[in-house]
Prior knowledge:
Bound molecules: uridine-5'-diphosphate
Order of helices and strands: HEHEHHEEHEEHEHEHEHEHEHEHHH
Shape: globular
Radius of gyration: 21 Å
Number of strands: 12
Strand order of the largest sheet: 2-1-3-4-5-6
CATH class of the largest domain: Alpha Beta
Oligomer: single chain
CATH topology of the largest domain: Rossmann fold
Number of helices: 14
Amino acid sequence: MIDEYHGIAPKGDLLLIHKLGEKFNGRSFLHINSTRQGGGVAEILQRMIPLLRDIGINTRWEVLKGDSRFYDITKKIHNALQGNPEKITDDMWDYHYEINRKNSEELDLEADTVLIHDPQPLPLIKFRKNGNWIWRCHIDLSNPEIGVCERMLKYCANYESAIFSMPNFARAMKISEFIIPPSIDPLSEKNRELSDVEIRETLEKFDIPPDRPIILQVSRFDRFKDPVGVIKAYRMVKKYNDCILILAGSPATDDPEGETVLNEVREFAENDPDIYILLLPPFSDRDINALQRAATVVLQKSLKEGFGLTVSEAMWKGKPVIGGATGGIPLQIAHRFTGFLVRTPEGAAFRTRQFLNNPVMLKRMGENGREYVRNNFLITRQVRDYLSVWYAIENKDDTVFEI
Length: 403
Ligand code: UDP
């Protein structure tokens, strides 16, 4: 399986994975998050778990079970950590802890290394049995509600170390911290090469005209993804250029706000026949792949973003992306080289028109983007990094990986 990445992923990454795989052969690695589908974390785990097993590491993936009250609370915590003013009461914190306690009775927490993803399962550390526990934070912690953040960091203090996607998300803590950006899998159904026939099938399925320029944003229906801002940008473009807009998204099981935001977006779109709001069922990977390949211009106009896997996904398909200058997006978009960073609907509209009017520049920046993703954001690099952190934790004298 890992061999299938030869010729696609950088050689050095594959070599290091091979070496670290030998080192950790037969050892156990447990990942815990709060949803098996929807959103970037589940997306990566679905692909990474089999890869880790393939190199001989005994890897498991457990999912925390919560109820709607729990997800409402954790969504509020998530929003507060990304800077929204939210009040998390003591009762809510207690419930967050209580659901984790209940889960700890059912989950098998024994492993040599345990990677806890995001705040939902963070309190599980209180029920640690053995092993190295690492908190993997995928969200944008650059400007959080301080009270909420401090409460989270109290749990963190009990971990061996924490991993953030970007340097400016890291917080001052007494434990060691590492920077590991997320990644995409070039061989998954979401990213593999597709034939023209496969792309056409998707367009036909959604009645999308194949011969008009397509502006696309793929995202959960979440205000931080600014779907309304995307529609505003499209309307400005539309005054001068023919185009259609596709907003494709599906609900995540741990995101209770999706439906409300979807309704807001539908209302704002005012039945414009050239706006396609596609509510995709879970695991629509082939369709998303096809839409990204069919698109002329891809937007990810987020206002806050942990990383934004959709950016690398589109870049891997040779599409330059116009992205919000926030969170992990600037890590992927080198402004004017692999795409454009924008701050407003006006900026997004201006850059979209530049692409629509200049196919040569569009192609060149798309090619740059693909190579940039190859060297920085493929899943092999992330497997390499996780195993390197594990190695660093168990060989504490060797501080070479620490920041
Ligand atoms: N995604 C999907 N279906 C959708 C919308 C998004 O499969 O309808 C995928 C998308 O292709 C990407 C992931 O979900 O792989 C979203 O990750 P990202 O980091 O962009 O955002 P998050 O949802 O984690 O905030």
